[in-house]
Amino acid sequence: MKCELGDIILLNKFLYPDGTAGTLHSFVVVGTERDELEVLPFEYLCFLISSQKEKERYPYNVPIKKDNINCLQRDSHVKCDYMYTGIKEDDILMKVGYVTEEQLDLLFDTYLKSEEDRVTNPNTG
């Protein structure tokens, strides 16, 4: 299933940063990768979406209210401190909705801030 930047997708499977397997989770597509020869499968770069209230105050989480554009089931937040890579088309169960261009810009800005802070303060993340 082909996706565009800003699409919210439901993944069948993925790996958390610590290597733990995850299943059935929503993500925002923030990039695409393909090798120069276009031989390898198309891959997506994504941010994880969470609705866990106790984590919404983390510094690099961006709130996203449910609406008829993103089609989320509840108000959530996008975790912009880690970019999930290597997401393949076969991992995508369905497109759920999408974020606006303005929201996508905010997600990128927040990710860049997290990377800048990680370089400046490597012991904090």
- Spatially, the strands of the biggest sheet line up as 4-5-3-2-1-6
Largest sheet: 6 strands, antiparallel
CATH topology: SH3 type barrels
The shape, in one word, is globular
The H-and-E topology, N to C, reads as EEEEEEH
CATH class identity: Mainly Beta
Q: Can you tell me the number of structural domains?
A: 1
The separation of the N and C termini measures 33 Å
The overall average pLDDT, rounded, is 87
Gyration radius, in Å: 14 Å
Q: Which CATH architecture?
A: Roll
Instruction: Give the count of helical stretches.
Output: 1
Ranges where pLDDT stays below 50 over 5 or more residues in a row are none
Strand content: 35-45%
The computed structural class is: alpha+beta
Helix content: 10-25%
Number of strands: 6
Commentary on this structure:
The chain has one domain (7-124): SH3 type barrels, CATH 2.30.30.110. It has one helix at residues 101-120, and strands at 7-15, 21-33, 43-50, 61-64, 76-88, 92-98. It is α+β, with helices and mostly antiparallel strands. A 6-stranded antiparallel beta sheet has the order 4-5-3-2-1-6. The longest helix is centred in the C-terminal third of the chain and has 20 residues, at 101-120.
Features:
16% helix, 6 strands, 6-stranded antiparallel sheet, 125 residues, 1 helix, alpha+beta, SH3 type barrels
Question: Which secondary structure elements does this structure contain, and how are they paired or packed?
Answer:
Layout: E1 7-15, E2 21-33, E3 43-50, E4 61-64, E5 76-88, E6 92-98, H1 101-120
Antiparallel strand pairs: 1-2, 1-6, 2-3, 3-5, 4-5
